[in-house]
Amino acid sequence: MKNLQWILVFSIFSFTFLTSCGDDDEPEIDTATFEANFSGLEDLGSDFAYEGWLIVDGAPVTAGIFTVDANGTPSATSFEVNADDLAKATAYVLTIEPSPDSDPAPSSVHILGGDFSGDDAALTVGHGAAVGTDFTASAGTYILATPTDTDNTNETSGVWWLDPTAGPGPGLDLPELPAGWIYEGWAVVDGTPISTGTFRTATGADSDGSFSGDQPAPPFPGEDLLRNAPAGLSFPLDLRGNAVVISVEPVPDNSPAPFTLKPLVGPVAADAADHTPLSMNNNAGATNPTGTIQK
Predict the structure, then answer these.
(1) Strand order from edge to edge, sheet including 31-39
(2) What SS3 state is found at 265?
(3) Residue 273 contacts by C-beta under 8 Å, 6 or more apart in sequence?
(4) What digits encode the pLDDT tens for the residues 71-94?
(5) 121-127 contacts at long range (C-beta below 8 A, 24 or more positions apart)
(6) What is the pLDDT of residue 29?
(7) What one-character-per-residue DSSP string does 200-248 give?
(8) Sequence-distant (≥ 6) Cβ neighbours of residue 100 within 8 angstroms
């Protein structure tokens, strides 16, 4: 009889325990899927990835991480998120993040953004939550010269973004960049890009001078290509018949090569004269990435 009583007590206890556990289960969260389409994004390598964010009640909510291959094809175009967040989202922002990433918040490198109109959002670099400008009003002038040495026989082996007719004055008309981005100058010789340094303003020296000579340099972005040539190149060289470029780079930078944003490109004519203002072409429309989001 005692054994039967204990069996009944144990059975009641087990039923009560299992029922209480069932009552404490978390409710299931409804999810929904949105579709993304991107064009013009580049492969970030193994140390970085793209991350999307829904802006919900003014705050970012992660909305999927993906990479892009060498052909520009994203690793994912469909993303599952909280259904309520997707319904309430007013905007979408795409950032570049370290991979792996220990910080749950967005980085400062915002590359695309767009507001939802109904169920759709068109993404641009010019959105206020992205780079904030599309660079289509940017312009540039440069000269070929090597002011940091005393030799006047190698004047086509240096590029300086200045206008000698203005005092000299700045040769670049570029918008101010937000945190997470910086400008970088390049000389591209036989397909090989050579960085001339990074900068934030068109007036003042840039970050580099490792290729220049020992004489004072003009207070503008630029570089004389005279020494410490990268592997495969010999300095001095002739920039005529090659190109100069201004790019917009993420901070931190994902690659030693120019980033996909190249608002200004200057093909250097084979007969270009040194110490003479030369114009750059606005290339923003060809290199700005774009995207769309559909709820």
Answers:
(1) 59-66, 48-56, 91-98, 110-117, 120-123, 290-294, 31-39, 78-82
(2) strand
(3) 144
(4) 999 999 999 999 999 999 999 999
(5) 121/91, 121/92, 121/292, 121/293, 122/290, 122/291, 122/292, 123/38, 123/92, 123/94, 123/290, 123/291, 123/292, 123/293, 124/288, 124/290, 125/261, 125/288, 125/289, 126/288, 127/93
(6) 79
(7) SSSSS--S--TTS-SSPPPSSSEEE--SSPPTT--SS---TTSEEEEEE
(8) none
**Using one digit for the tens of pLDDT, what is the confidence trace for 144-202?**
999 999 999 999 999 999 999 999 999 999 999 999 999 999 999 999 999 999 999 99
CB 187 within 8 A of CB 223: yes
Q: Specify the number of domains making up the chain.
A: 2
Residue 26 lies in a domain: no
**Is 10 a domain residue?**
no
Cα distances (angstroms) measured from residue 122 to each of 89, 94, 295: 14, 12, 12
| CB contact set of 37 (below 8 Å; sequence gap of 6+) | 77, 291, 292, 293, 294
Dihedral over Cα of 226, 232, 238, 243: its sign: negative
Residue 252 lies in a domain: yes
- Alpha-carbon distance of 206 to 17, in angstroms, equals 70
Asked if residue 156 and residue 84 are part of one domain, the reply reads: no
Q: Smallest Cα–Cα separation from 156: which of 235, 101, 78?
A: 235
Measure the CA–CA gap between 219 and 222, rounded to whole angstroms.
Answer: 9
Between CA 82 and CA 30 the distance in angstroms is 6
Domain that holds residue 41: 31-132
